[in-house]
Design goal:
By secondary structure, this protein is an alpha+beta fold. Helices cover 22% and strands 19% of the residues. The chain contains 1 helix and 4 strands. The chain has one helix at 37-52; strands at residues 10-13, 27-30, 60-62, 68-70. The strands form 2 sheets. Strands 1-2 form a two-stranded parallel sheet. The protein has a two-stranded antiparallel ribbon with strand order 3-4. β3 and β4 form a beta hairpin. The longest helix has 16 residues, at 37-52.
């Protein structure tokens, strides 16, 4: 759900879940399988919605060695 009873400022979104709003969070982290075409399409939709809402965005991708690399 979208309730935040503990006052958390960060929300992790997984398995194609979609927050009703980007408001009230310091950071929202979308985790998805970059090898799954449907998951990538859903993540692109979320990116566009967040951008339209005026959120600051970054995109990180895991490398073959397991490190995280900032892509956008």
């Amino acid at each position: 759900g979208d309730e935040v009873p503990n006052g958390a400022g960060i929300r992790f979104v997984i398995d194609g879940a979609s927050p009703a709003s980007f408001c009230g969070m310091e950071r929202i982290v979308f985790l998805f399988d970059g090898h799954d075409g449907e998951a990538v399409a859903a993540a692109r939709t979320q990116w566009k919605l967040a951008k339209a809402a005026g959120c600051g965005l970054t995109y990180w991708q895991q490398t073959e060695s397991g490190r995280w690399e900032k892509k956008a």
